[in-house]
């Protein structure tokens, strides 16, 4: 009886994917809830929750990619275009969502008197909180529907590529 690691690597790839989407659901729920929050402490609490999920989010993202690449070589799909297009789409979506999210949520975190990011990944210390009018103006710039639709469409396309392996 030949022992193969393929089913285990496939299981790990799927498990990492499920973990990634499960944890990322928290951030999406917060993105939709945040503009409705009236209390500054509530806003801070919501944004702190997303920060707590980041290690699991990024860890599962890296694992799903690593296991996906391993599967491409184990099943000898590495010569086909679909695994690499999936990889590019997933990474492109991640870069765009990170960039877009930073444009919206870093100024909001700063306005709320929380640590915030600038540049590639420079964490800045909290500053004096802004007025409620400035905070509301920043909340009006959020667009969780666009983040959700981009995520759903690109993820659906990647899933289609993985299942149908068209090229």
Chain-wise SSE layout:
Blueprint: H1 6-33, H2 40-74, H3 82-111, E1 116-118, E2 122-124, H4 132-140, H5 144-164
Antiparallel strand pairs: 1-2
Short structural description:
The chain has 167 residues and is mainly alpha-helical. It has five helices and two strands, in the order αααββαα.
Give your account of this protein's structure:
The chain has 167 residues and is mainly alpha-helical. It has one domain (6-164). It has helices at residues 6-33, 40-74, 82-111, 132-140, 144-164; strands spanning 116-118, 122-124. The longest helix is centred in the middle third of the chain and has 35 residues, at 40-74. The model has no long low-confidence stretch (mean pLDDT 95).
| Biggest β-sheet strands, sense, barrel | 2 strands, antiparallel
How many domain units? 1
Assign an overall shape: elongated
- Structural class based on helices, strands and sheet pairing: mainly alpha
Total helices: the number is 5
Features:
two-stranded antiparallel sheet, 2 strands, elongated
